Amino acid sequence: MHRASGSMVKLAPPWERHPALLTVIAVRLRLKGMQEIIELFPEPDAERGIRRPHGPRTGSLPSPQRRRPDRLPGRRRGLVLAGCGVALLPWLVVLATGLPTTFRASHWSAAWVGLDALEAVGLITTGLLATRGDRRLASAAAATAALLTVDAWFDTMTAASGSELRAALVMALFAELPLAAVCVRLAVRALPRTP
Fold first, then answer.
1. Which of 26, 99, 189, 192 could link 31 by a cystine bridge, Cβ 3.0 to 4.6 Å?
2. Quick one: the chain helix, strand, coil %, rounded to 5?
């Protein structure tokens, strides 16, 4: 129990407040459902030029014959994604013509703190994966680049004119977009080479 302003408030258990803690606990206890999570991170293929700096994990990966086949082949997935993108085009017209020019958000600071926290996690993760030569670097770097680009966009689009807009432009041009470019370069260089 936690006392907040004269009343008793029951806090959720730590694993409900922090889902990552539950994942760590599940990995430590080697619960049955963790096999699916392990399948998401297969060992790198040596012929693709991806290496693991600390040697292979022992006993943590399923054998190739136990992996589930893809439910939806790559070509169909691509068509579905492209179709979703085309379906968004008319929605852009609706947004452009129907949204108000100004809006008061009730969780404005939480939105910006959340975005910047995701950027910090992305930059730290990308940096650590880059120093280790980890095969997941491409995904982390691409996601971080997207976050930084989104931050630059919304900083400049939501800034008031004058000094606030100048500060947003300086941050976008000299911090967020250059960092995004570095992340894109890391992501492209980390992609496996095809013969």
1. 26
2. 65, 5, 30
